[in-house]
C-alpha cells in the first residue's frame, strides 16, 4: 500500500489525470462504460493533451493527445506493450496485429502488401457488388413490410460476407442468415471477453471464468473454419494452375502466407443533419444514373461529397480507437519525460475532437471543413498526428483501401435508394 501511494503521488506530480475511483481497479470502472469516448474527450480538455489513468494499482496508462508526439512515436515504430497484446493472442496469434518481433513483423507486412495494392483491392468489386444486391434486398423487404432495420448489424453482416469471400474465398451466408449466422454468434462470444483479456492477460492464460472458456472454444471453432477455407483455396489453385484474370485477395493470401486476419470498418452514419443529406442526395442524383442500384468503382470515384462525409465521420466518431505503445526506458520528447515501463495510448477519439487542433467547431459534424484552404489558396491538410482513423506510421492498417471501397459503395447504394429516419426516441 505504501509503495502504491508513493508511486501514485510521484506519478500525479508528473502527469495530471482523473483521481482513481477505486484502490484496486483504479479508473477501470470509469473506462469500461459505454460513454468512455466522452470521458476521454472531457479528460483531454480538462487535464491537457498528455494525461494518465490507472487500470489497477500499478498499471498506469499515459494518454498521448499531442499530434507532434503521436507523429514521432508512431513513425519511429515504438514497440507495442507485450503484456497488453498478450491478452489478444488467443485470437490473433503471432499475426500482424500482435506481432512483437520487429523483423518478423516487417516480413509479414511485405508478404501481405501485394494483397492490398489499389489494383488488387479494386478487383474485389464483383464480390461486393453481389453482396450489395443482397443488402438492398434485405432493406427492400423491410420497407415493404414496414419493419425497422438495424443498419449497424446489417453493415456487420455485409462486411462478414465480403471479408469471407475476399480473404478466404468462402461464403459465410451472413446476410442470408442474419442473427442466426454462426460466425456472427462466434464473434459475439469472443470479442467482449477478448477486450477484457487485453486489459488482464492473466484472464486469458488462466481461464477460470466460464466466459473465458467459451471464448477459447469459439476461437478454436473460428480458426478451424479459417483453416478449412484456406486449404480449399490452395487446393483450387493446384488444380487450376496459374490464376488468370484479376487477382483475388484470398488467392494471394492462401498461397503466399500461412494465415492472416484483418478487419474492415463500418462507419456510424450521422443522418441527423438534413442539410448534409440533401447535399449528398443531390450529388448522388447528379452523378449516378436513375436506374443505378450498385454504382461502379468509376462512378463512386466522382462522389466527392460522400468522400468528405466518410472522412468527417471517421474524425467525428470513428470505430477505431488508436493504438498502444510502450516505453521500455525513460525517454524525453519535446521536453516531456515519458517514464519507463509505461503503456502509452495513442488514442484518437479526443485528438480528433480537440478544439486546439480543429477549431471551435470541433464537436460539429461538418464535412466542408475538409475543403478549406490556406491564405495562399492551398488545400488545408490535417496536422500530422492529428488524424489517424486507421492508426498511424508504419503500422497503419493495411486494409484501409479495402475499407474505404466498401464504405463508398455501401453508402452510395444506401443513400441513393432510401430516405432514412431514426426510430422514435433512438439515441446513438
From TrEMBL:
- Which GO MF terms are attached to this record? heme binding; iron ion binding; monooxygenase activity; oxidoreductase activity, acting on paired donors, with incorporation or reduction of molecular oxygen
The record, for InterPro entries, names: Cyt_P450, Cyt_P450_CS, Cyt_P450_E_grp-I, Cyt_P450_sf, Cytochrome_P450_monoxygenase
What does this protein need as cofactor? heme
Q: Which SUPFAM superfamilies match?
A: Cytochrome P450 (SSF48264)
Q: Which domain of life is it from?
A: Eukaryota
Q: Which family does it belong to?
A: Belongs to the cytochrome P450 family.
Q: What is this protein called?
A: Cytochrome P450
Q: Which organism is it from?
A: Phlebiopsis gigantea (strain 11061_1 CR5-6)
Amino acid at each position: 500500500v505504501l509503495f502504491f501511494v508513493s508511486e501514485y503521488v510521484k506519478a500525479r506530480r508528473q502527469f495530471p489525470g482523473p483521481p482513481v475511483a477505486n484502490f484496486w481497479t483504479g479508473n477501470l470502472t470509469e473506462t469500461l462504460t459505454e460513454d468512455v469516448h466522452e470521458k476521454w474527450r472531457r479528460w483531454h480538455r480538462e487535464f491537457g493533451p498528455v494525461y494518465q489513468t490507472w487500470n489497477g494499482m500499478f498499471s498506469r496508462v499515459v494518454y498521448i493527445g499531442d499530434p507532434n508526439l503521436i507523429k514521432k512515436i508512431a513513425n519511429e515504430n515504438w514497440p507495442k506493450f507485450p503484456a497488453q497484446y498478450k491478452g489478444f493472442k488467443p485470437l490473433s496469434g503471432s499475426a500482424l496485429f500482435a506481432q512483437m518481433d520487429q523483423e518478423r513483423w516487417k516480413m509479414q507486412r511485405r508478404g501481405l502488401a501485394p494483397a492490398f495494392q489499389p489494383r488488387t483491392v479494386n478487383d474485389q468489386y464483383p464480390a461486393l457488388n453481389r453482396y450489395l444486391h443482397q443488402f438492398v434486398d434485405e432493406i427492400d423487404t423491410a420497407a415493404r413490410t414496414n419493419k425497422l432495420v438495424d443498419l449497424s448489424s446489417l453493415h456487420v453482416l455485409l462486411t462478414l460476407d465480403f471479408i469471407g469471400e475476399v480473404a478466404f474465398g468462402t461464403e459465410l451466408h451472413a446476410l442470408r442468415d442474419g442473427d442466426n449466422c454462426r460466425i456472427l454468434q462466434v464473434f459475439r462470444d469472443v470479442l467482449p471477453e477478448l477486450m477484457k483479456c487485453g486489459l488482464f492477460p492473466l484472464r486469458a492464460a488462466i481461464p477460470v471464468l466460464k466466459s473465458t472458456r467459451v471464448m477459447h472454444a469459439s476461437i478454436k471453432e473460428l480458426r478451424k473454419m479459417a483453416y478449412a477455407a484456406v486449404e480449399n483455396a490452395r487446393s483450387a489453385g493446384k488444380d487450376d494452375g496459374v490464376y488468370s484474370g484479376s487477382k483475388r485477395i484470398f488467392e494471394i493470401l492462401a498461397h503466399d502466407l500461412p494465415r492472416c486476419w484483418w478487419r474492415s470498418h463500418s462507419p456510424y452514419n450521422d443522418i441527423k443533419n438534413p442539410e448534409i443529406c440533401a447535399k449528398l442526395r443531390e450529388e448522388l442524383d447528379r452523378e449516378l444514373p436513375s436506374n443505378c442500384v450498385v454504382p461502379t468503382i468509376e462512378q463512386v470515384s466522382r462522389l466527392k461529397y460522400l468522400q468528405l462525409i466518410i472522412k468527417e465521420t471517421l474524425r467525428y466518431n470513428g470505430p477505431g480507437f488508436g493504438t498502444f505503445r510502450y516505453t521500455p526506458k525513460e525517454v524525453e520528447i519535446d521536453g516531456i519525460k515519458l517514464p519507463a515501463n509505461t503503456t502509452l495510448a495513442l488514442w484518437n477519439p479526443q485528438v480528433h475532437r480537440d478544439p486546439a487542433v480543429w477549431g471551435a467547431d470541433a464537436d460539429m459534424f461538418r464535412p466542408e471543413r475538409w475543403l478549406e484552404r490556406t491564405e495562399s489558396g492551398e488545400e488545408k491538410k490535417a496536422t500530422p498526428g492529428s488524424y489517424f482513423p486507421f492508426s498511424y506510421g508504419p503500422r497503419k492498417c493495411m486494409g484501409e483501401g479495402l475499407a474505404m471501397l466498401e464504405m463508398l459503395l455501401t453508402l452510395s447504394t444506401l443513400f441513393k435508394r432510401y430516405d432514412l429516419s431514426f426510430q422514435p426516441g433512438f439515441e446513438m
